[in-house]
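Standup notes
- DV: blocked on the single-chain target, sequence here:
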Amino acid sequence: MAQTATKLPVKTEGKGTSSPSLLPEWRPFESLRREIDQIFDNFHTGFWRAPAIPAVFDAQVVGPAADFAEHDKAYEVTAELPGLDAADIDVKFAHNTLTISGEKKEEKEEKKKDYYLSERRYGSFQRSFQLPDGIDSDKIEAKFNKGVLKVTLPKTEKAQNHVKKISVATK
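- DV (later): unblocked, structure below
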């Protein structure tokens, strides 16, 4: 059984005006809501969030910028901690996790001026790195120089010699 199409009459207005259902809905508070949500999102991520990263990627950095490198005999973590002293930094290693934490304290100055503006950020931070097995925890070293923390995590002898050469046979 084939069905035939039924044609219905369509009423159109000849004055060029659009019907209200075709106009986009006017929402004056949507922009304001997005801006307020962004303010709260930035507040919860802490002061170590990288502002230069576009919101499209929504990167959430919850600690200082860091580099991680593996060498033949050790792993190395380098973290940027500008404006801090070695006494403000805490480095811990437990259960194959390296944790760098600390606090940047606000230094207040009372000056007799009409206003005070501070764009620098203060607060506490923490950054953790999950590391593989085979770290000699008794020989871990941390050095702090000119705002850069360098943590060296030596590998055990067994971890250093984990590469095994396998010969390839021909037919």
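- Follow-up: Residues 117 and 131 are 41 Å apart (CA to CA).
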